[in-house]
Amino acid sequence: MAEVTLRIGDRDYRIGCADGQEAHLEWLGKLVSGRWEAARRASGGLSTERTLLFVSLMLADALNDAEKGDSTGGGDNLLLDRIADRLEALAAALEDDGRNA
Question: What is the pLDDT of residues 56-98, one digit of tens each?
Fold first, then answer.
């Protein structure tokens, strides 16, 4: 069994994988890491766990769009900006609900 260290945000994560899958796992880690800053902003930077949740939501949204054949026409940066805007609005709504509960 192989092991890969992924740097996501300001932390290192050691992940075990099948031999020969190291490069693929590193590529997946870069996908997550590449969305870290937008997710941190959207989550309010409250915690690593919350930021990872937002990264997961961003990737799920991108996957959903890809499965539906939805094209933004502006590439990854436009998609990331659109997703970050959605997540920031969601975070604001959740914070408002928490204050009004």
Answer: 988 988 888 888 875 554 556 667 777 777 777 777 767 665 5
Length of the chain as a residue count: 101
Cα–Cα distance for residue pair 49/4, rounded to 1 Å: 20
pTM of the model: 0.62
C-alpha 57/C-alpha 26 separation (Å) is 20
Alpha-carbon distance of 3 to 18, in angstroms, equals: 8
CA angle centred on 7, ends 5 and 9, rounded to 5°:
155
Contact 8, 36 (CB under 8 A): yes
